[in-house]
Amino acid sequence: MKVENLEKIVSLGGNVAQIILAAATIGAFFFTVIPLYQKAAVDEQVAKQQVKLEKLERQIRVGYERIRADAVRQYFFATGSKCTALLDPPALTQGAKPQVDLTNTHYRWMYQLVCVRNWACQIQRMT
């Protein structure tokens, strides 16, 4: 009878070992393969977003260059027109001061810039 009991115990041990190995395989799959797949999916999404970001940065750079070139062109046009007094109203060309509210800081700075620019234009005209 001892041999029969031993055979039953060995058979039961083998079955338990198979169950433990199946559980370990499922656990290994769950804790290694699935996270690696999820990481790969996230990496793919990040790569797509980086491509979109590069495209948007390129569009922004082109737009900035276009706006900058237009601003420089407008500045040179306005400065040249101001220095030749083409855009000044008749009251300003005769030395009269404009009726501007100089209590507002913005207008005061703008008036000072206009005065400096007019002074620079007068110097340029004399040379």
Summarize the structure.
This protein has about 130 residues and is mainly α. Helix content is about 85%, strand content about 0%.
Written overview of the protein:
- The protein has helices at residues 2-83, 90-93, 105-126.
- It is mainly alpha-helical and 127 residues long.
- It folds into two domains: 1-87; 88-127.
- It is rod-shaped.
- It starts with a helix and ends with a helix.
- The mean pLDDT is 78.
Give the SSE layout.
Layout: H1 2-83, H2 90-93, H3 105-126
Number of strands: 0
- Give the termini separation: 127 Å
H/E series? HHH
Helix content: over 70%
Radius of gyration: 41 Å
Give me the secondary-structure category.
mainly alpha
Could you tell me the mean pLDDT? Answer: 78
Number of helical regions = 3
Whole-number count of domains: 2
Q: What about the largest sheet? A: none
Percent of residues in β-strands: under 5%
The shape is: rod-shaped
Low-confidence parts, pLDDT < 50 over ≥5 residues? none
